[in-house]
Amino acid sequence: MTTELQDPRIVEYDVRTDEMLVNMGPQHPSTHGVLRLLLRTDGEIVNEVTPHLGYLHRCAEKIGENLTTPQWIPYTDRMDYLAGMNMNLGLALTVEKLLKIELPEKAQVLRVLIAELGRIASHLVGMGAYGLDLGSFSPFLWAFREREIILDLFEEVCGARLTYSYITPGGVTHDLPVEIHLPPGLASLTGQPADTTVSWTEALLQFLNWLEPRIEEYHTLLTRNQIFIKRTAGLGILSPEMAKSYGCTGPVLRGSGIDWDLRRDGEQIYTKMYEGYEFEIPVAPFDAAPPEAVCGDNWCRFYVRMMEVVQSIGLVRQAIGKYATAEGEYRETFKMATKLPVDECYLETECPRGQMGFYLVGDGSSEPFRARAKSSCFCNLAVTGPLSQGFLLADIPAVVGSLDVVMGEIDR
Amino acid sequence: MTNASDIHDALAETLDNEAITGSNFEATDPWIEVAPGSIVAACEFLRDDPGLLFDHLNNLCGVDYLQPDPKKAKTFEHKPHVEVVYHLSSFVLKHRITLKVCLPRWADDVEGDIPACPSVSGVWAAADWHEREAYDLVGIRFTAHPNLRRILCPEDWDGHPLRKDYEFPLEYHGIRGQ
Hints:
Chain A is α+β, with helices and mostly antiparallel strands. Chain A has 18 helices and eleven strands.
């Protein structure tokens, strides 16, 4: 039996394929760690996305109930392992809020300096890895070249490159080193002899001077790249209402056009650190956006991160200036077994990926009765399902990558 | 900015007489305790009232108030119970409040029967995953939740690890513990 078709093009739309369940992950590089997305696909179209998490669950909250708060700091490093400094800061501030400790100026300046440098390092990875998700390899290598220098500088400060435990309740563990060897990466990039010795702040300034003009190069590589725009602009649009309802924070929230940053709008103990600093909070929509971009799409979320790097560079510069004249010590004495009062407190800080919250309940002993870490990526990841319905399979990494999730923080 | 006692008064005006079971405005984070049956109405009111506009659920977690250590139990002030803690804030009005719901540790005092609390996932979508986590780790059944499955632990895991009397399993699928 033959069938006559009036329009042969109809065939393409009329061919029904069987629905198929596809596991994406947990060992897929573009899921940014051990995340498994269960996709219900109809051909190339994805009808449903169900994230499965927990592969990296290390019982951080249960462990926290059996440790004193300074002892719990190293575990926060391992939550968002790309921004360990910012995680340390979140817990340290929560403990200080619970104990009502005031820090000397120098400790606060050091914290701003280090946390903003951590934000640059983290956003560089976010940017590079996002390029990698979309098939462009060079930005990834460039971003890691820059990050390497920041890690070298962190290593000079606290001895660790990834799991710092540098910001602890009471301040920071060490003051900045006076004289260091120029990080090898920076020496070769700026054409200086490898054995040059400079002060730590001077090395950092040299790095910032080198990094700042490079931002424009990233824009040419990615932001204004026509292929990149085609893959990101107008895709994965997260409406402000949805962003609020799902509890999205950080660049994801600001990419949807909500002007909210805890460094300005947070609790007094946190905003006090940033008093006297000048910085802007990049919020979508942007003037520089390509015509295809819509407020809340993948491109906007990516661009918020890029603009935050510029702001953080400015903040680090200001902090270097303040550090020279800051008064007081870099830390207050804080005993390892400091008893927590019978009280409870919750504090969120602005980490590179969003608002990381810590909730501590004290019962008069030195270990918290309940230690809770609320992850920002946990909420940001929850939008993946509704956001990528009806997309092509190839666009799923573009959506998940734009949320910039770190599984270590989600699973804790 | 509205302070906690004003929020308390606004809530008391709208809800039933017995809806608000306690409050503490002197704590570091002031909190209001709401009866389990009124939590959804309270959350909807806090989200929609033009003077409050709590549009952001920062955090939702469970706490198991039981002190198994006999030494510490002498000074422990709380009766054994389970709490659900809601941290809310408003993007527009920039204020914050903490809500609490107190539940028995076990439903009807039958050990192993986890207590129930109405789900607020219809008020804020963020509560969906947070309630799954609280169910998984603390053992609270959120009624009317669209998809109450474990989220961090494997689906066939036994018990709720953040319960204070949780016993670590000796074996899981042939993997020895301890």
